[in-house]
Amino acid sequence: MNNWKKATAVLATSAMLATALAGCASSGEEKKETEQTEGKAKVVVWSHWKEKEFDALKEVAEAWAKETGNEVELKIDESEFQQYATAARSGEGPDIMFGTPHDNLGTFTTAGLLDEMPADLVKEADYEALAFPAVTVEGKKVAFPVSMESSVLFYNTEKVKTPPTTWADFIKAASEGGFMYDVNNFYFNYGFLSAYGGYVFKNNGGTYDTKDIGLGNEGATKGYQLISDFVNKHKFMPADANGDIAKAKFTNKETAFYLSGPWDIPAMNEAKVPFGIMAFPAVEGGGQPKPFVGLQTAFVSSKSNNKKQSWDLLKYISEKGSVKFADLSARIPVLKSALADPKVKDNKNVSAIAAVAASGEPMPNIPAIQTVWEPEKNNLTLLTSGKATAEQVAKDVTEQVKQGIATQQ
Fold first, then answer.
1. Please, are residues 338 and 127 in contact by the beta-carbon 8 Å criterion?
2. 245: which of 28, 170, 202, 266 lies 20 to 30 Å off by Cα?
3. What are phi and psi for residue 137, nearest 5 degrees?
4. Coiled coil: which residue ranges (predicted)?
5. Residue 333 three-state SS
6. What's the rounded Cα separation, in Å, for the pair 130 and 147?
């Protein structure tokens, strides 16, 4: 999925971004408070959604404009987030940025670029439990939750007649039919660490403690060993397996299992792969893997002159567009009424992904998460290639994340 690939590219360079934006926020130039207009307005939206998704978004937004008498202007934005920050600070940015991964919100909050959601805009109880915690930074709701996504286990229903319910059954079925994924990508591997009690930062009631890093504890170490075993013991995949290779193997019907996300469903349908979706069984000696859950969000610029209309538009998009987006491209709603809509509920793929996501964990949204991706990628590469043990990876990742956090401060 283009959005996801773009997001991972941003995450790979996000430590630099966090430093740059923090510098902008403390440059000594006081941010001018802009007044919110109360009458009719022209709301400008930059979207990271493209093609059919953009068309659907535009249709909903234009319906809002027609109903309210406001204007709305949408454009597809393919710039990097650094460029958005520059445009926003100069007053050249949009009122709304749409389709932003929630784990970037902490960085933009630190830079003073996000408006706080009005307290009476929506009822949190109308949304999935993980929705608003994922968009809350420093106690403030700084974005609107649009949809959720998580990694899931796809299986070829011709090769796997009965989905495995135990870890031993999964290993047996994968040994017979094949299993592959982007093995050095931490996003997909987090569930294996969490299954044994690993975590990124300790979550204390919604506040992350960056001094309590769980990427090197006993549970995380067991998770790293499990990942190593996929490559070095069970020989499911080569050490350099990536997403493109793994997807090709599955869409060509060469492998029985593929760990990925809803963004690959269109490619599977095009290739006419008969597939099902499932969660991993509980690992041997541990619990069920809890995958990272990513939320697609939309936020209002702190520099916008049309804040009231912008938040109203986002509420309208959520209420009127969630079912449409789910039906079009498996964007999993976080609005409970949309999840209960027959068009969504009866969509077996959407329902299956929603069930897996409900058991997962939102990625931390604080700036410190940006220090995790590169150390994990580098050390996982050493792990799967047999150049480092699980114990060494656990130790080195933790130290490198600590060093990364220190450079942010």
1. no
2. 170
3. -130, 130
4. none
5. strand
6. 11
With bands split at pLDDT 50, 70 and 90, how would you rate the model's confidence at 329?
A: confident
User: 291 burial class (0-12, 13-18, 19+ CB within 10 angstroms)?
Assistant: buried
Cα–Cα nearest to 350, from 103, 125, 150, 99 = 150
For the record, the structure tokens of 336 come out as 């409970």
Indicate the SS3 state at residue 19. helix
Contact 187, 195 (CB under 8 A): no
**218 CB neighbour count, 10 Å cutoff:** 12
Task: Please name each of the domains of the chain with its CATH number.
Answer: 2-28+37-149+294-362 (3.40.190.10), 150-292+366-408 (3.40.190.10)
Query: Is the overall model pTM greater than 0.70, yes or no?
Result: yes
Q: Among 279, 253, 275, 191, which Cα is nearest to 227's?
A: 191
pLDDT of 48:
94
Per-residue pLDDT reduced to its tens digit, 47-106: 999 999 999 999 999 999 999 999 999 999 988 767 888 888 888 899 999 999 998 898
3-state SS, residue 258: strand
Question: What order do you get walking across the sheet with 152-156 strand by strand?
Answer: 179-181, 257-260, 152-156, 275-278
Distance CA 230, CA 170 (A): 12
